[in-house]
Amino acid sequence: MGALSGVRRFAEPVERMFGGIAGSVCGVRTAEPHVVLTYDDGPEPGSTEAVLAALGDFGATATFFVLLTRARRSPGLLAEVAAEGHEIALHGPDHRRLTGLPTREVELRTRAARAELEDLTGRRTTWFRPPYGTQSPRTWRAVTRDGLVPVLWGPVLRDWSDVPQSDRVAGAVRDSRAGSIVLGHDGFAGPEDGVDDGPVPVVDRGDLTRRLLGAYGERGLVGRSLGDALVSGEQSRRAWFRR
Length: 243
Fold this sequence. Notes:
Layout: H1 2-18, E1 24-29, E2 34-42, H2 47-57, E3 63-67, H3 68-73, H4 75-83, E4 87-92, H5 103-121, E5 127-128, H6 137-144, E6 149-150, H7 165-174, E7 181-185, H8 205-218, E8 222-224, H9 226-229, E9 234-238
Parallel strand pairs: 2-3, 2-7, 2-8, 3-4, 5-6
Antiparallel strand pairs: 1-9
Helix pairs in contact: 2-8, 5-6, 7-8
């Protein structure tokens, strides 16, 4: 009991410091039937267009957390994402874990990436998703110092692993409710993005998005970007730290 009590005493001030308004966005409090669709690691030619087509077929919007390594190679595709009414957010200059980098480097590289992304899109960048969802109190401070807001997730599509599409959809829908932030991908980070996560999974991401939105529709839910969901909802924040 003594050790557990110590953990609780530690957790309480951490929640007070990093929870609430000072935490990371992990959902939306809303009375609307909105689920927040997010896509990481793009833009990726072929894959991103397929996702955009599926979103368009359902009248859905999404937030795309892009890598600068990808955006530089496909600026036209990045512009297409924005032109179709979707939200562009920052995933990083590359896909390296922030928790393995010095604090000052995290701050400088994230600031530079934000400025470059804003130059590419002509829009202000507010949302940030740390690669792999890994962040510590020190990296959280470094990222938020200039006003970026970390955004994490709830349900996941498991589109980085070799599982049937039906299992991906069933798992995400089972865990979703109004205000959930869903993690999907329109790309797969690789050596050109500073990491080696193994072979690229074979996933029809357009088909996956259509199946997901169809299943949500059967439950009266619709896909929205984070910005669109927040028009009538409020951010739900909490402390999120993992290495």
